[in-house]
Amino acid sequence: MLRAEFIYPCPGGIVININNVLNPSDLTTMEQYLKSINSTGNNEILALYLFQSKSYLKITSISYIQPNGNKLTSDDITNIMKHLELFEYMTLVTKPRVIKAFPKSDIAIIWFDIWDSQNGFKAKLLINHSFNFGRSIATIRATNINPGVPQYHNY
User: CATH class for domain 53-142?
Assistant: First the structure.
């Protein structure tokens, strides 16, 4: 049985310490309960979330110039991710970043960060998986933290 150990108000919200790990349906149930309490209005509870960390990943082996002649954009990658079952439960931290692997190369590297559990469970599901992207076979790899905008100049 799921039980709250303590509830603590803090700036910007409240912290609820529970006796077990929540699954998505437990989170929904808890959110509905909090919204039903008379002392809180529906508008006061924006969303419940679990503590999360970020996982840093990259996609390799994708053509930078698409068959229609356009350059690959982060919107193209985001659109593909929305339609692939592999990314179904993933939430991007920011838009993916598309960078040419080498100045005279037609291969792109896509850097993206996802919200993940503390142990990197979601990233482990993605790492070393391949998927078709047009005529390319893309592979997802783990990478180190990549803060900010990459400073890479195409010549």
Answer: alpha beta
Interval 81-110: pLDDT, tens: 999 999 988 888 889 999 998 888 899 999
Check residue 69 and report its DSSP letter. Answer: S
Q: Which pLDDT tens digit goes with each residue over 12-27?
A: 677 777 777 777 677 7
Query: Which residues are within 8 A (CB) of 42 and not within 5 positions of it... i.e. 6 or more apart?
Result: 35
Beta 13-18 vs 4-10: how paired, if at all?
antiparallel
Residue with the two structure tokens 């482990």: 124
Residues shown for the chain: 155
| Strand residues in the chain grouped as ranges (E) | 4-10, 13-18, 53-63, 97-100, 107-116, 130-133, 136-142
Across 130-141, average pLDDT: 90
Structure tokens at 90: 């993933």
Q: Give the predicted TM-score (pTM) of the model.
A: 0.64
How would you label 89-123 residue by residue, b for 16+ Cβ within 10 Å and e otherwise? ebebeeebbbebeeeeeeebbbbbbbebeeebebb
Domain boundaries, the chain: 1-50, 53-142
